[in-house]
Amino acid sequence: MASVVPLKDKKLMEVKLGELPSWIMMRNFTPNGIVGAIKRGSDRYYNKYINVRKGSISGITMVLAAYVVFSYCLSYKELKHERRRKYH
């Protein structure tokens, strides 16, 4: 017998495409809700990649790669303007 899980308690990967708009509207978009979601995400990342018995450099490497991509996106307009152009 399958138990029925309320839509609010479902994870994103368990939500069907037709239920997605109503699932998004049930999320908490207040400042406290957003801060809580960021904290849960960082705790999950820390426990999965950093706080492990036999860790590797992959957890820190992902953070550094995300930082490089983010900083590149922020400075793309200036970099695009200064790149070499073919003058004719």
From TrEMBL:
Subcellular locations according to the entry: Mitochondrion inner membrane
Q: Where are the transmembrane segments?
A: 56-76
Q: Listed GO molecular functions?
A: proton-transporting ATP synthase activity, rotational mechanism
GO CC annotations? mitochondrial inner membrane; proton-transporting ATP synthase complex
What is the membrane topology here? Answer: Single-pass membrane protein
Reply yes or no: does the keyword Membrane apply.
Answer: yes
InterPro entries the record matches? F1F0-ATPsyn_F_prd
What UniProt keywords are attached to this protein's entry?
A: Acetylation, ATP synthesis, CF(0), Hydrogen ion transport, Ion transport, Membrane, Mitochondrion, Mitochondrion inner membrane, Phosphoprotein, Transmembrane, Transmembrane helix, Transport
Transport in keyword set: yes
Which GO terms fall under biological process for this protein?
A: proton motive force-driven mitochondrial ATP synthesis
Q: Where does the source fall among the domains of life?
A: Eukaryota
For this chain, the family text in UniProt reads: Belongs to the ATPase F chain family.
**What protein does this entry describe?**
ATP synthase F(0) complex subunit f, mitochondrial
